[in-house]
Amino acid sequence: MGTFADRVMVDLSDPAHLRELVAPAADAGHQRLRRLFARVYSLPSAVLHDVLDVDVETTEFQRPLFPGRHTSGTWTRAQPDHRRTDVVYDTVDLRVAQWLDVSASLALTVVLRVDPGEIESIRTVEIDEFATLEEFRARFRYFDLDAFLARHRISTVEELRRAYRYLLTEVKLRPPAAFDPADPANVRRFDLRLAFLVRDTIDLTEALRAARHVGEIAGRALPYRRSSGGADATAPYAAVLVFPAAGVPGTGLNQAQLEQFFDAAGVLAVFVTQ
Known about the structure:
Blueprint: H1 4-12, H2 15-22, H3 31-40, E1 41-42, E2 46-65, E3 68-77, E4 83-92, E5 98-114, E6 119-127, H4 133-137, H5 145-151, H6 157-163, E7 166-173, E8 187-198, H7 204-221, E9 227-228, E10 231-233, E11 238-244, H8 255-264, E12 268-272
Parallel strand pairs: 8-11, 11-12
Antiparallel strand pairs: 1-10, 2-5, 3-4, 5-8, 6-7, 9-10
């Protein structure tokens, strides 16, 4: 058990050490957890205000992910009568596995700033007094008048008046109440699953390909809840690449550049001193 990957797996078998890896004490703003959360969840009507706590619930080591295989086709016969059958096979290729060095399930407690999107008023008026096309255009904030005219073969303001009746509806949203981060109603708890890929050396191409492969297989093969607590889940896992800090000088880059590269690719890279 002499490799870096072996030592990291043993280290991460301690929930306290795994928690420190994703939420280090020095990371007061919880930037790692924020990045991981954003890899799995989108917030269509809220903003992640703060991370209150993270608990390690389960860990599994060397979990295999098997790629699925989808085969479809059509079986047709002409005699003695015409028949057509659509055939679909979904199978799992057990001969090929992508291994997760550590699969972890976390419980994340966060504070969300939620915009309820409540409507205060709706007002509809008819637009019937306009002398020019530009005057008509000015009545709208978002309207492609040129495309509308071309689609309906209208070229003059007189034709525009005769063609239709035009209604303009304005929806005014109610200003949200003052945000109180201490209000329990703003606290949410989310499941956050992580896929750790531990590498003994730093090979950017191989590591990024492996992270991409894991994402593709997991997205197709693993079930997960698509919505929870006001968030939309976009993936079953967030990928975490774990590298030896001692290998950074050999890349010709510094650690910040490597972290930025992987972050732009949607993967969290962590460099560990062993």
